[in-house]
Design a protein that fits this description.
By secondary structure, the chain is an alpha/beta fold. The longest helix has 19 residues. The radius of gyration is 16 Å and the shape is globular. 41% of the residues are buried. Helix content is 40%, strand content 19%. The protein has a single domain, classed as Ribonuclease H-like superfamily/Ribonuclease H (Nucleotidyltransferase, domain 5, 2-Layer Sandwich). Strands 3-2-1-4-5-6 form a six-stranded mixed β-sheet, with helices on both faces.
């Protein structure tokens, strides 16, 4: 089986996991990037304040998302782009938490995804002083990108996983997770039930 996955990264307007204001997605097929997309998101009411701290990090302001699709409007496009792939993110608990929390806040079912954390894979692949995305990406040969731009961060994340898979001689994302002893996480009712049926309820992350 080939190395197929979708890398994802969110930027948020504030500390709320429901305040996604930008997403970047990178499609990997057979260990190569074949598609990439990004867009702004209008955070839902009550989670739409843009804090100075967050804006200082990613540069996105409230004026930038005026007219952008809401979470509920853009979620089908996100799910369609991923097309059943495992998602990969650096510190994946944060990014998958955005999907889970934002969907719950707007009253939508949480979509089903399996995911793998590139931060954890990097920790078991490289010997670095720091495993922050820019440092881990540099170890994978991906340098000089616009950190905290959602698309650039997704590309860096994809580069880490592709490089790690080659280093570990892993043919699939599941095999890479197994070799590096990184748990495959799940969100969404169907994915969670299927994961529990195979691995037992104690295996959920």
């Amino acid at each position: 089986m080939p190395l197929n996955f979708t890398a994802i990264d969110f930027e948020t307007a504030n500390s709320s996991s429901a305040s996604a204001c930008s997403v970047g997605l990178v499609k990997v097929r057979d260990g190569r990037v074949v598609d990439r997309v990004s867009w702004f998101i209008q955070p839902p009411l009550g989670h739409d304040e843009f804090l100075e701290w967050n804006t200082r990090i990613h540069g996105i302001r409230a004026t930038d998302v005026v007219g952008a699709a809401s979470w509920g409007q853009q979620l089908p496009d996100l799910v369609a782009f991923a097309d059943g792939d495992h998602l990969v993110a650096h510190n994946a608990g944060f990014d998958l938490g955005v999907i889970k929390t934002a969907s719950t806040v707007v009253g939508l079912p949480v979509p089903d995804f399996n995911y793998v954390c590139s931060l954890q894979v990097a920790r078991r692949t490289y010997h670095l002083d720091s495993y922050r995305l820019p440092v881990a990406a540099m170890a994978a040969g991906f340098e000089d990108f616009a950190h905290h731009d959602a698309l650039a961060d997704s590309e860096a994340c994809a580069a880490i996983m592709i490089h790690a898979a080659k280093r570990h001689e892993a043919d699939t994302i599941e095999q890479l997770a197994h070799i590096t002893r990184v748990k495959v996480g799940v969100i969404g009712p169907v994915a969670t039930e299927a994961h529990a049926a195979v691995h037992g309820p104690m295996a959920l992350t």
